[in-house]
């Protein structure tokens, strides 16, 4: 079979696939222009990879395609109705990255509240020459109120850390009520506006869909406390990025920690990178060695199942 591998497929998994199939790996290319990519795509039986835009235009060039296996839990890069119409299976990698992403979201909460990257630079640049005063203090995380938007697996794992590790009070907003979360972490369900008004920390971890696109913008940031900290561990498209920049500059909120951007890789001139009250990461939530390898392995399993006519374990479009 011909397998088109794109961006993040870990080497041991790629090598194992190469033993069985004709695999071509692509990275950092313009998928609309690259001749080798377009030529291989026209013959490909399967695609495995991260964040390749699989839309109608691409599918027109891939007449033999049977499976598209995403190496991620998010699948906003896939046009599911279009894939389904063409009888092409789409799969993702849920479950195995849950704790890794939750750890990272908590890392953003802690590093933003306690200004860890900024103070790291302060020490390393030799500025720690005398006893510090309040201009360098951060804000507490423990015993504060955490508002989680999106209570899927990862939201649940963030709530667990917050409740058991940091004695935080959990409020959440989600498509549906989660009785298990309410019971285990004494979490309270709220409408979005109330959550924004009440939270000390707002953590966005919802998937990017038509319904969630741009769901947090100027109005929502203005509802937050001026001492509030905003964390985005979902997708750049779930917020209006310029409105976040304005909210941070105007003092509508205190600080933000973001792992995701509207455009990735982020433009080095993006204002979020210039602000002192932001902590920024390169969309690395699931990227520990262990978890990336497991994600690639699961994606390969999904791919192989689909290619051999079996139902993949993580089929998105049944
Ligand atoms: C995911 O799995 O969706 C992570 O955000 C990596 O893209």
From TrEMBL:
Keyword annotations of the record: Oxidoreductase
Gene Ontology molecular function terms on file: glyoxylate reductase (NADPH) activity; hydroxypyruvate reductase [NAD(P)H] activity; NAD binding
Superkingdom of the source species: Bacteria
The D-isomer specific 2-hydroxyacid dehydrogenase NAD-binding domain, residue ranges: 106-285
One GO cellular component, as annotated: cytosol
Domain D-isomer specific 2-hydroxyacid dehydrogenase catalytic: 3-317
Homology family: Belongs to the D-isomer specific 2-hydroxyacid dehydrogenase family.
Name used for this protein in its record: D-glycerate dehydrogenase
Organism encoding this protein: Oceanobacillus halophilus
